[in-house]
């Protein structure tokens, strides 16, 4: 947990799952709610915030493309930490709303994707109204109901949001446990401007964004070999379109290990030699604190012993 009094931008408003992640990592910091992931990351770039907390991947819906793409382009940013939040949703509405009154439901697109099946069973035919976050959907509903506006005046009747958030906004729960996959988890990253890399803990991750070495057969293999031949395990790899033409992709990667691990150091050198663009997006402690044990032959001592042996072959000593 970070204890300094830094300013943390996050995907707001109060009551988002992102705020739950922020409360894990920096409960006492100044919290700056932002309307979207890009604004939160830009606040760090511009110096109006010291850190941003943003979602990066969900165990059901996969990568958060706004986060992956904003991290990998523009002024450099680095990940300095991560947090995991268990995800469960309620369907909430102003007091007096009945389930059969619900025609349109607002929430974040990632939340909708995680509840689609249950919602179809609960409220057949209900349509999705996209919101900037789960809490933003509920907040507007609560605000208009408090102002005495009639049901549906915001363009929707209910919101999918976190249980604690529905309670905080004074909304009534029409259905709980609305997620299709109980046990879903979203991973959030703490992002800062480049500076000193967090100290190695032995339970670390390194995040990278890598362009493929060439356009021909085997390009992906050449890139992946850099990790495999140094015994580096990947905990996430996903393609992101380059955006300039169909069929051109780069890869967002989480590798197990820290920049100070010899095998990660060597992997980065290998990637730099063969790939046209490698963006280092940080080495930081894993949220689950699970130690990373290098395979036999890939520990720092193995690299040191191998280096000493090659040095000895130079024949610098007396003839
Ligand atoms: O809308 C929120 O409450 C968020 O924090 C965003 C977000 C996401 O982007 O995935 C975070 C966790 C859930 O998976 C659903 C939505």
Automatic annotation (TrEMBL):
Q: Does the keyword Amino-acid biosynthesis apply?
A: yes
Q: Which InterPro entries match?
A: ACT-like_dom_sf, Chor_mutase/pphenate_deHydtase, Preph_deHydtase, Preph_deHydtase_CS
Which part of the chain is the Prephenate dehydratase domain?
A: 7-193
Which residues does the annotation list for site: Essential for prephenate dehydratase activity? Answer: 186
* Key word Lyase present: yes
Q: Which PROSITE patterns match?
A: PREPHENATE_DEHYDR_1, PREPHENATE_DEHYDR_2, PREPHENATE_DEHYDR_3
Quote a single Gene Ontology cellular component term: cytoplasm
Xref: Pfam families: PDT
Superkingdom in the source lineage: Bacteria
Name of the protein: Prephenate dehydratase
* Species annotation: Salana multivorans
Q: What is the lineage of its organism?
A: Bacteria, Bacillati, Actinomycetota, Actinomycetes, Micrococcales
